[in-house]
Amino acid sequence: MLNSERAKMDAGEWYCCMDPELDALRMQARRAVHAHNVMRPDERGKMAAELRALFANAGDAFIEAPFHCAYGVNISLGMGVYLNAGCVILDSASVFIGNGTMLGPAVQIYCPEHHHDKALRKAGLEIARPVNIGQDVWIGGGAIIRGGVTIGDGAIVGAGAVVTRDVASGATVVGNPARPISR
Fold first, then answer.
1. What is the pTM of this model?
2. What confidence score (pLDDT) does residue 177 get?
3. Rg over CA atoms, the chain
4. Could you tell me if 77 and 58 are in contact, meaning their C-beta atoms sit under 8 angstroms apart?
5. Which end of the chain is more exposed for a tag (fewer CB within 10 A), N or C?
6. How far is 74 from 70, CA to CA, in rounded Å?
């Protein structure tokens, strides 16, 4: 049996997000994100050392400011990954973004899902679901990727799409909820 809320979160079980250990991890992420977001304009797009050290793997990613993540420790970025301004990654579970993938402005990736029972939700119960994004994927501005989703290599997610299900390699999806279209 898992006895810490972080261990439960990492194992994909229901956990209480209002926990001192998780609060401390989120504060560490806030500090790293702040350091990144206030870099001098001629350094923009590079990655603040604090943020690079926080990520599980940062590759040579180019991250525009502003950027936000919940924990950072669950994020793995491949080589040549580009995150445009305003991207948000709530990484309570692992988030993998493959080589050459580009995220448009204001793309949001949400791993946590709050409990559907209002009393348990009020008590802070949530579950974390991983997100896996393949290589050479293009995600248009304002798209939202829900936890538990895998997006295959070479896929395209249209601007503003809400991705609630897996996307096949090479597919193009648009809309809310995102649905495949032919190219």
1. 0.95
2. 95
3. 16
4. yes
5. N
6. 9
CA distance 173 to 181: 6
Boundaries of every domain in the chain? 5-181
Residue 43 has pLDDT above 80, yes or no: no
Q: For residues 141 and 126, is the Cβ–Cβ distance under 8 A?
A: no
CATH T-level topology, domain 5-181: UDP N-Acetylglucosamine Acyltransferase; domain 1 (2.160.10)
Q: Which residues are catalytic?
A: 114
- Helix count and strand count (H, E) for the chain: 4, 19
| Tens digits of residue pLDDT in 96-131 | 999 999 999 999 999 999 999 999 999 999 999 999
Q: Nearest 10 degrees: CA dihedral of 163, 102, 78, 137? A: 50
Contacts with 113 (C-beta within 8 Å, 6 or more apart), sequence order? 126, 127, 128, 129, 146, 147
**What are the pLDDT digits (tens) for 128-144?**
999 999 999 999 999 99
Q: How far apart are CA 99 and CA 134, in angstroms?
A: 7
Which tens digit of pLDDT belongs to each residue from 80-104? 999 999 999 999 999 999 999 999 9
